[in-house]
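Suppose a classmate hands you a notebook page containing two proteins, each written out with its sequence and a corresponding row of structure tokens. How would you begin to make sense of it? This section walks through that situation. The first entry is reproduced here exactly as it would appear on such a page.
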Amino acid sequence: MHPLSHGVAEVPGTAALILALLMLAGSAPSCKGWPWAGPADGEKAVGAGPSRTVVPEEPCGGSLADCGGICADLGSDPGNCGACGVSCGDGAQCEHGACVPRYGLFFGDLHGHSNLSDGVGTPLEYFAYCRDVSKMDFCALTDHDVGREALERISAAADEVNSPTFVALSGTEWTSSAYGHKVCIDVTQPCSAASEDCDTPAELHDAVLLGGGLCFAAHPAVSWPGTAPTDWSESDDAVEEAGEIYVSEDKMNEAWRDHGLRIGVVGVSDTHDGTPGSAGVTGCFATELTREGILDALESRRCFAARSRVNGSENPASLKLKINDHWMGEAVPAQAGLPLEISVDVDAPTIIQSITLKKNGRTIATKDDCRARDCTWSTAATLDGPAYYYAVVSTGGNTLWSSPVFFE
């Protein structure tokens, strides 16, 4: 046997000679890795045996994209949002391929009184109760028609207790017997309805715009001796951002439907006994727990109202309404025939009895089979013109209202 034919002795003569000559010429396949075991992970082979060409295999399947060797969902990956390498950054998340703010849910009471008007307790005691007893995230003290000295005392108390875990806001309740009451928060200019230079809504709006802050209609349907219901024809939704819906849902529909006001909803206690946060509360979706974050949520109408606290629970419930990915409070151009995907998410401390979806104040759909403390409901509709939609939730002993989504 030719020494170079070692290992191929069983190959017939002519073939063995050819193979031996190839080995002498260095053209024979190397024995390293023989027999060939197939492609390595992440590779696929073309051809046959060890001479086949190795090319990369697509590593991601379905809706995932290969972003530098990482399989990414471009619809929800905050580091590859909409396209590889597009980062949403801190404070944002990726939804449907677009970077949107990441919101936290915070609860607070925006209407109450101390001994600076017709309530009890000092401003510091008021804020301490809201923070330590009611466990609210934010709170506003809004005494009636305060002058500069009283407003400065409220502001000083708010500054003293304001912290990274509790937002304290100063304010006042403009108390008009002709136009109704309006709560204004984070204001720096006193404006009393008893003053001749601030006894109309227009003068109030000018003062608020000059000094910053925002307002909302207080108990808009209430008619007490010397107090009139809110006159929506005198309202300006560039300043008045909301209304207290727990008093009258019909009165809020009057503002939305009959006067075209784009305002949100709030829930409050209107406490006069020094117990803020013990009754109605407001839930706001904000980017951060700061004065700026809460005010932005109110101005954007990204809030819902709860009639009351339930069974001493720390939080009343969570209610979120979105239509075609538009948050409650958003104003969207109306397109007749536009398909609407409506979603309502509720998380409550008691069993959810019903979720009602309303359009222009009228019920268009109801879900009454949640039978749980959390419920997600999706339904479809078709837009037929300008309209507003909002949700009403009934739980054991409580009612919640979302701010509307406006199509205009």
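The notebook's second entry, a different protein, reads as follows.
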Amino acid sequence: MRCDVVAVGTELLLGQIVDTNSAWLGEHLAANGIDSLLQVKVGDNLGRVVASLRSTLAAADAVIVCGGLGPTHDDLTREAIAEVMGVQLVLDDDVAAVITGMFESRGRYMAANNLRQAMVPVGAEVIPQIVEVRSAEYLHEPNAFLAVRRVSQHAELHENRGSTRKRAR
């Protein structure tokens, strides 16, 4: 099986942030017997993210996408995956409740844009996160995407690797 990585974020291209996620993913994919032959960095532009996902997926069995899942206008991973898969985004009420609950538990005001993180492509399986509240989408028809925010803190990636490997085949 081949699973390549696409890291999304203009800050990666500008050198403002070092892409440790792709290195971590490469190490863990290899340790689990999954070939990863390509890692791509792409800026926060919907057309370029879509093109990168399409070209990467054309050569791989699955693609892991890191970055672009936050609440701001330039976090476009959800929209790009939905476009590539030919589906709409829908609000996941369970994810929205977790996000809202996090703000409420801290007695903080929540700006409406935070609910962007609860928008998931139709057909996506949401993998709950333990460490922080940011959605992870997993699509497996006809191919697979696993989109994660911070893989070094994403325990479920490790716990679900068997499920991810099985569904991506």
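A careful reader of the second entry would note: The chain has one domain: 3-168.
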